[in-house]
Amino acid sequence: MSSPKRRIETDVMKLLMSDYEITLVNDNMQEFYVRFHGPAETPFEGGVWKVHVELPDQYPYKSPSIGFMNRIFHPNIDELSGSVCLDVINQTWSPMFDMINIFEVFLPQLLRYPNPTDPLNGEAAALLMREPKNYDAKVKEYVRKYATKESADAVGAEDGEDGEGEESEEEEMSDVGSFSEEEAAGDMEL
Predict the structure, then answer these.
(1) Which domain holds residue 111?
(2) Does residue 161 fall inside a structural domain?
(3) Does 181 map to a domain?
């Protein structure tokens, strides 16, 4: 039917025309950032994350790589690298899905229904299984500290960003979200 390049353009254009805030990397439609908001009625509600997306040349036949740039406390997301453990999506990924599905279905479901039996963050998994109320409290603490609009804007930003009042925390966040080319955040496939 249509070539993968055309499909990439179509899916990214749909995402650009949606309500999501998208930032293309070097005007490249295969690599971009999406501002993602935590789902309502979860401890992630009110959180804002900068999510890195990379589409392989074989997209949509191969799933995109997704990673959180600012910190998040979740059993299936590596706290420091932002890599997302999405084995379920990998197993269910189909060319029928598009980028809108990632941000409206897959990621909200992952945050809503974590799988502590297959963790990337053992501390979060153990806390969720043993003390769910303390898990919720820690998630909310991370949302307050690391998942603000300002944190999402600052993470991975080049020097020269001026944060008023919270400069030291924003600098700390930028360091957390800065990775060498060898360990790019979130190069975990869906």
Answers:
(1) 4-154
(2) no
(3) no
From the list 74, 155, 135, the residue with the least C-alpha distance to 109 is 74
With H, G, I as helix, E, B as strand and everything else as coil, classify residue 80: coil
Q: Give the CATH number, domain containing residue 132.
A: 3.10.110.10
Active-site positions read: 85
Higher model confidence: residue 164 or residue 137?
Answer: 137
Query: Using one digit for the tens of pLDDT, what is the confidence trace for 41-64?
Result: 999 999 999 999 999 999 999 888
Q: Is residue 96 part of a domain?
A: yes
Task: Count the neighbouring beta carbons within 10 Å of the beta carbon of residue 100.
Answer: 13
Domain membership of residue 116 (yes or no) is: yes
Can you give the pTM of this predicted structure? 0.79
Q: What are phi and psi of 94, to 5 degrees?
A: -140, 150
54 sits in which H/E element: strand 48-54
Give the model's pLDDT for residue 6. 93
